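>> received
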Amino acid sequence: MKKVDPTEFSRFVLSGAVAALGNFLTVWLLRHYQSYEVSVLLGAVAAAAISFVLFKSYAFESRSWRRAPAEVSRFTVVYALGSAVYWTVAVLLGAYVLPGVLPPAAAEAFGVLLGAAAMSLTSYFGHRFFTYRTHANEFAAPKSR
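>> returned
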């Protein structure tokens, strides 16, 4: 059993980048009509929805929509855990560890980047082994054509 499927991981990263862009655009568009706080919250909701659809249909190729309700529940757990990992790593590194060796703005920027990287890894493995369970497909009999 492969821990990481390079093709699947590449699709996951691309899907995550599209979701991040969706988040940014949602915040930017809504900011013209809503407060910053509401815009950021709705941007996060948009990113989660985009992530779910792209992760399901593209990154992890889970084609059955009958399983979607259960996948949404598991996705939410993994997304929340990934968000907690992101926040924890970003704050610990950006506010407490890196300021000792970097200027404050650089420490915060690297904290955010390292937090996002930690969230990406946490989320990939969470979705691969829990939400969409694509690792199980490696044991299935090859499909006949």
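>> The helical segments are 6-30, 36-59, 68-97, 104-131.
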